[in-house]
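User: I'm putting together notes for a lab meeting next week and I want to include a structural view of one of the chains we've been expressing. I don't have a solved structure, so I'd like a prediction I can at least talk through. The sequence is below, exactly as it appears in our construct file.
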Amino acid sequence: MKYNNIEKATFVSRPNRFIAEVEIEGKRHVVHVKNTGRCRELLIPGCEVWLTAPGTPGRKTKYDLVAVRKSDGVLFNIDSQAPNKVAGEWLKKKDYTRIIPEYTYGDSRIDFYMEKEIPHDTADDTSDNTDSAQKHLYLMEVKGCTLEVDGIGYFPDAPTERGVKHIRELIKAKQEGYNSALAFVIQMDGVTEVRPNIEMHPEFGTAMDDAKMAGVDILFLCCHVEPDSLEIVSENLLH
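Assistant: Thanks for the context. Below is the predicted structure for the 239-residue chain, given as structure tokens.
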């Protein structure tokens, strides 16, 4: 995915989780932060950040803060909407015959529902030849990872009961015959795996372990980040 316009700024402060103060050519601006996570190790006074101006009528702030360069020089995309966008682009390159975003399953809205046709010559001859017998069904929940420690990604960076609920739904779906996957979009270069941040939210770690035991695929979608873009370049499966 690409941003239509991007502008460099210097981070000053973050009064609350929704806004930040930045400087552009010596002038201070209040901008929207497109990530409600803590990002304390990233948003440090004086660091380089990148903004985009969506141009939406009636906005209180002109800019969205979407990327930041960490003190070690690594560029992070922190746009919480970006993971679903790049995951959708990535899925379209696969051989799915149907992709539905924001799919309602149980008591949750799962990020993606997919279907894949089974070739007729490999279908079970004993099937009743209905449409459902000719398809594989998939559910995939996407999480964006912006927390890195010593080359390892961690999730979440703030407690997420919603995230735990989604994992429980994926386990249920797997038991009901779906191919279920929990996919982490790693919003930085150089990181190839994500571990549960059990110090922040132990229950998420337990749920992730339960998912793996139940046969839910844990995917790590590795990205290349530029100030104006985010792209999935490789994928790893947790074994």
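A couple of points you could mention at the meeting. The mean pLDDT is 93. Residues 161-175 form the longest helix (15 residues).

User: Perfect, that's what I needed.
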